[in-house]
Specification:
This protein has helices spanning 15-25, 102-106, 125-130, and strands at 47-52, 68-73, 79-85, 114-116, 145-147, 157-159, 184-185, 188-193, 196-203, 206-211, 214-215, 217-218, 221-223, 225-226, 228-234, 236-238, 251-253, 257-265, 268-276, 284-287, 300-306. The protein is mainly β. A hairpin with a 2-residue loop joins strand 8 and strand 9. Residues 1-26 form the signal peptide.
């Protein structure tokens, strides 16, 4: 599978390294990561596009070119996609929708990326501004966006990424490598994020992705696929925004802390834990023996799956 640009700042480190990282935050000297898991390669600013993925928004455009795709739970049992581009940019991406409070902590690991969005709830405006995540939204760069007359609003807004300002800060590439021993042979996997079902099927050295029992395709490519899929189980909390117009609460996925995870790669599944001590830190994944579970080369999907 082709490798699309650099990889994200998600470090898949052994548990021992995670413990050392936590202790360094408490005031001790910060140790260097083990050489086998030190990220290498180019780094640069990231572009993140908030993409609609309800049925009326499919098929999307430009999604297959993302280096990392996050699936976020939002109000009403729906989900939204945060697509991260670290290398070559598609000419068009969309449909573009609004930012969510989950984005603020989640995207802290990408420096100050450009966030393309249709806007946000008024309560989020100062938070997005403080995080530097408001420079690429429609109100700031209206000429970068256009409406597709063949689509119905609000699923008709698209963006030309090359017309957006560039983000700042650096993105540390994710280490890739050979999977540890102990994986369980897996060719099919079903996961549920809120009320949306995702299916992953291992074939031709990639995970083909379906959503709500239909292949997830794009207008500029075939079925979307990933080299690695990580199911990151997270808690949610009430956010600054009270809810949508129907009164549904707007959940915030908690991505700083720790929890359980499953890593899918090479036709295998690995049970793991994730930990992240601050929004500007990388997420660390390790198996039960404390070994790193590195991603394979290629696109990475991360599902933020709510748990009770």
């Amino acid at each position: 599978m082709a490798h699309h640009g650099g990889m994200p700042r998600i470090w898949l480190l052994p548990a021992a390294a995670a413990l050392l990282l936590v202790s360094s935050c408490a005031g001790g000297p910060a140790p260097a990561p083990p050489p086998s898991t030190t990220p290498t390669g180019p780094s640069g600013a990231a572009l993140v596009v908030k993409i609609d993925n309800v049925a009326a928004a499919r098929p999307q455009t430009g999604l297959g070119g993302a280096d990392v795709v996050y699936v976020e739970p939002v109000e009403g049992g729906l989900t939204r996609i945060a697509a991260v581009y670290l290398g070559k940019l598609p000419s068009v991406v969309g449909p573009v929708r609004s930012a969510r409070e989950t984005d603020i902590d989640l995207l802290g690991q990408y420096g100050r990326p450009t966030l393309a969005c249709s806007g946000s709830a008024p309560q989020l405006v100062p938070l997005l501004h403080k995080a530097g995540l408001d420079t690429g939204c429609q109100s700031a760069v209206p000429d970068a966006y256009f409406r597709d007359s063949s689509r119905q609003a609000p699923h008709d807004l698209y963006v030309h990424p090359d017309k957006l300002p560039k983000g700042s800060g650096t993105v540390t590439p994710e280490p890739t490598g050979t999977a540890p021993p102990g994986g369980t042979p897996t060719t099919k996997r079903h996961e549920q994020v809120a009320n949306v079902g995702f299916d992953f099927e291992w074939s031709d050295q990639k995970w083909s992705i379906s959503m709500d029992n239909k292949p997830l395709t794009t207008t500029d490519g075939g079925q979307v696929a990933a080299a690695t899929v990580i199911v990151e189980r997270v808690t949610t909390r009430a956010g600054t925004v009270p809810g949508d117009v129907a009164g549904n609460p707007s959940p915030v996925a908690v991505t700083v802390g720790s929890g359980q995870a499953t890593v899918l790669r090479d036709g295998q599944s690995f049970q793991a834990t994730w930990s992240r001590s601050a929004a500007t830190d990388a997420t660390i994944f390790a198996d039960s023996a404390g070994r790193a579970v590195p991603a394979a080369e290629g696109p990475l999907w991360i599902l933020l799956e709510p748990v009770a």
